[in-house]
Design goal:
Blueprint (H helix, E strand, L loop, with lengths): L4 H24 L16 H23 L12 H17 L2 H20 L9 E2 L6 E2 H20 L13 H19 L6 E7 L2 E8 L2 E5 L8 E5 L1 H8 L5 H7 L2 E5 L1 H11 L4
Helix pairs in contact: 1-4, 1-5, 2-3, 2-4, 2-5, 5-6, 6-7
């Protein structure tokens, strides 16, 4: 499925601005913040920042290889296990070097990635880069990085902020990325018994998926008639999609609504929205 390349390229600026915002926040953290627990089980804030730092380097390497037409694993690894081990070791070294090194590592990894992203051409976005789940179009990696920044920022803050929300400055960009994730989820998780047309809406943003057996097609704007509609505010839809919110709780609060065929809408929610 090819998404709009201009929209994907437009999100490179959102990646840069979110990176800068987060780096500034990290530099202001008191020492104690680095050892605070996050939403992710077993991760302290330092672990989350190390993950984001090594991801910048990881993304830069695989995208650069993919655009050359020769997808390869990062860090010279021979298999996925080797890539995971190399990334884990890089993160361990950053954390051992102290908090200043962690911030520097985050900024340096992000700078490498930003240099690659800003040089991408529209015709290169359909090329593929290596990912543990399979070869992935380069255009999708832009949204993957934005999502990683936005969600892990929330993960870090959520246990310590009442009613923590996503950074409001990136909600609009994230809504352009969500269809890419939703398509991946539907194709990977299976669509047996889901034939129909499903509309998804958050504010003024809306799109739809038509499902016929295992074939899933994307449309934006959605067709005039959908069998079921799933609607939510942007913050709720993103958190639900990334396994950070509960469907039942969002429906009870009114933040998530299903109209049209309720059974089909519920099945779509069960497929797209799965807890971490």
């Amino acid at each position: 499925m090819t998404f709009n390349p201009q929209t994907q390229l437009g999100n490179i600026a959102a990646v840069a601005s979110e990176t800068a915002r987060m780096a500034e926040a990290f530099r202001r953290w008191p020492v104690a913040y680095w050892q605070r627990p996050t939403y992710c089980p077993g991760w302290l804030a330092a672990d989350a920042v190390a993950h984001l730092a090594t991801a910048g380097d990881f993304y830069a390497q695989v995208i650069a290889a993919g655009r050359r037409g020769a997808p390869e694993l990062p860090w010279g690894a021979r298999d996925a296990a080797g890539a995971r081990a190399a990334r884990a070791e890089a993160g361990k070294q950053l954390m051992a070097a102290g908090t200043a090194a962690l911030v520097a590592g985050f900024e340096q990894g992000a700078a490498k990635l930003q240099e690659v992203l800003t040089s991408l051409r529209p015709d290169e976005l359909s090329k593929v880069a290596w990912h543990p789940r399979g070869l992935t179009p380069i255009g999708n990696w832009i949204g993957m990085r934005l999502n990683e920044l936005v969600i892990h920022d929330w993960d870090i803050r959520q246990p310590h902020e009442a009613n923590a929300g996503l950074a409001p400055t990136v909600l609009a960009a994230m809504l352009t990325v969500l269809p890419e994730f939703h398509l991946q989820f539907l194709e990977r998780r299976g669509t047996d018994g889901m034939d129909g047309v499903y509309g998804i809406q958050a504010g003024l943003a809306s799109w739809a998926f038509t499902i016929r057996g295992t074939a899933v097609s994307y449309a934006a704007p959605p067709p005039a008639r959908c069998d079921a509609w799933v609607s939510a505010d942007a913050d709720s839809l993103i958190l639900l999609s990334m396994g950070r919110a509960d469907v039942a709780a969002k429906r009870q609060s009114g933040a998530l609504t299903i109209t049209g065929n309720a059974a089909q809408g519920q099945q779509l929610c069960a497929t797209l929205f799965r807890s971490l």
